[in-house]
Amino acid sequence: MIMQEKDLYFTIGASAVAEFKDRGSKFLAYAYPIERVEDFKKFLQQLKKEHPKAAHHCFAYRLGTDEHVFRVSDNGEPSGTAGRPILGQIDSKQLTNVAVIVVRYFGGTLLGVPGLINAYKTVTSLVLQVTPLLQKQVEIKYDIAYDYTRMNEVMMIMKQYNCSVIGQDLQLFCITHAGIPRNRLDEVLYRLNDLQNVKVEKAV
User: Fold this and answer.
1) What letter would DSSP give residue 7?
2) What count of Cα atoms within 13 Å lies in the side-chain half-sphere of residue 82?
3) Is the pLDDT of residue 172 over 90?
4) For the segment 113-129, what is each residue's pLDDT rounded down to a tens digit?
5) Domain-embedded: residue 99
6) Residue 171: its pLDDT value, please?
7) Residues 86 and 160 in one domain
8) Which of 49, 55, 61, 87 could form a disulfide with 106 if both were Cys (CB 3.0 to 4.6 A apart)?
9) CB proximity list for 127: less than 8 A, separation 6 or greater
10) Does the pLDDT at position 3 exceed 50?
11) How far apart are alpha carbons 130 and 31 in whole angstroms?
12) Does 3 fall in a domain?
């Protein structure tokens, strides 16, 4: 998965579902945009509750832009027949911050290794075709702590440089959890550090 521009990455804009059938077996692929492993775990639990009678809940996800954070699971299918083909489709579209979970209902006929690889690959390809793809900026996460009186100035800088506000804790002393575009990082930090009573720390 080679990113052309490290300041940008591709992900999906919304969750989606697609279906594929082969010799009685039904494969349901669910694609989700995720920011953290916790997001993925929540979706997996949700699907296990929705489909308690399914034979398998196989998945793959990729997170971040350094290509190191990913996980695959065959969930009881023969090794290499489910998780890897799912990840292969995510990578072929050069996507990240994406999870695909495939729920399989067994139809009574064994599909064999090539049949399984084809089914998981096909249904993942289908679900990634029906969800809009987004190009996003690579962001570095920072926590900005400041006096309430500085709020307007901090928010103005956030807006000016297209930073995303991930979360806020607004008391007398405020904390904003922000994503700062990597290609504007130096400018944003310079502007924020220039303000009085504002403390900026890289998020853990």
Assistant:
1) T
2) 23
3) no
4) 999 999 999 999 999 99
5) yes
6) 85
7) no
8) 55
9) 16, 17, 18, 29, 30, 31, 100
10) no
11) 10
12) no
Q: Is residue 67 part of a domain?
A: yes
Q: How confident is the model at residue 21 (pLDDT cuts 50, 70, 90)?
A: very high
- Length of the chain equals 204
Are 17 and 97 contained in the same domain?
yes
Whether residue 62 contacts residue 68, with contact meaning beta carbons closer than 8 Å, is answered with no
Question: What's the Cα-to-Cα distance from 141 to each of 43, 114, 179, 182, rounded to whole Å?
Answer: 23, 42, 4, 10
Last residue of a domain, one of 135, 158, 189: 135
Q: What is d(CA 83, CA 37) in angstroms, rounded to the nearest whole number?
A: 16
Residue type, 87: L
User: Structural domain of residue 85, as residue ranges?
Assistant: 8-135
Percent of the chain with pLDDT over 70: 98
What are the C-alpha distances in Å from 71 to residues 28, 87, 100, 128, 182? Answer: 19, 8, 11, 18, 25
Q: Where are the beta strands (DSSP E) in 95-197?
A: 98-105, 133-137, 139-147, 164-170, 173-181
Contacts of 134 (CB under 8 A, 6+ apart): 10, 11, 12, 13
8 membership: H or E segment, kind and range: strand 8-12
- Please tell me the pTM assigned to this model: 0.82
